Amino acid sequence: MAAGPRRRALGRWSRSAALLGSAVLAYYTVPLSSAETTEARAWRWILFILGVLGLIALTAHQIRRQLRSRDDTGVRLASIMVVLYAVVVFFSVAYYGLATRAEGQMEGIATRTDALYYTVVTLGTVGYGDVHAVGQGARIVTTVQILFDLVIVGLLASVATQQIQRMGRRSRQGDEQRDERT
């Protein structure tokens, strides 16, 4: 790998690490409302819907970015990571809010770390059973997260498959060039 592509790849990974660090820092430090009124519950659902619409817009933007990048796997992977970080932080906040503000919605979430853990376990489709959605609201939020997770995993699989195919083509081309020289 030449110095230019290596430097670009390092820059992408540095930006990705900085974005992840910023997302985690924001997640743990941004205060969440503690009011539990009917109006506060309504606002939380409105914000959840707006957040989901924001995630859809971000995903659409990143898909367009991937289509423009064509063969640049680094851009494609970076755009997926942006969506992944946003999904994890957004749903962690949603689960924490449900667990601490809505009685009987979540089982096993007492801290922000518990909510982050549940989000990542759901993303990984592991499901240990120690933390789970109990109420209908929590089940709706979990279902929406699973739908986003399927899109993200599908995009990652697509990028990985294309990269493997590209490496296979390069290998075959190199073999053919060596065969022609001998």
Secondary structure tally: strands: 2
Percent of residues in helices: over 70%
Average residue-wise pLDDT: 84
Task: Compute the number of helices.
Answer: 5
Major sheet size, sense and barrel closure: 2 strands, antiparallel
C-alpha geometry: elongated
Rg is 21 Å
Which structural category fits the helices and strands? mainly alpha
- What's the domain count? 1
SSE succession: HHHEHEH
Q: Remind me, CATH topology?
A: Helix Hairpins
What CATH architecture label applies?
Orthogonal Bundle
- Main sheet strand line-up: 1-2
Q: How far do the termini sit from each other?
A: 26 Å
Uncertain segments are: none
- CATH class categorisation: Mainly Alpha
Strand content: under 5%
Domain Potassium channel: 84-165
Pfam families: Ion_trans_2
Organism: Cellulomonas chengniuliangii
Protein name: Potassium channel family protein
Key words describing this protein structure:
182 residues; elongated; single chain; Helix Hairpins; two-stranded antiparallel ribbon; 80% helix; mainly alpha
Report on this model:
With 182 residues, this protein is mainly alpha-helical. It has helices spanning 3-29, 38-69, 73-101, 112-123, 136-181; strands at 106-107, 132-133. A two-stranded antiparallel ribbon has the order 1-2. Helix 3 crosses helix 4. The longest helix is centred in the last third of the chain and has 46 residues, at 136-181. 23% of the residues are buried. The mean pLDDT is 84. It comes from Cellulomonas chengniuliangii. InterPro entries: K_chnl_dom. Residues 84-165 form the Potassium channel domain.
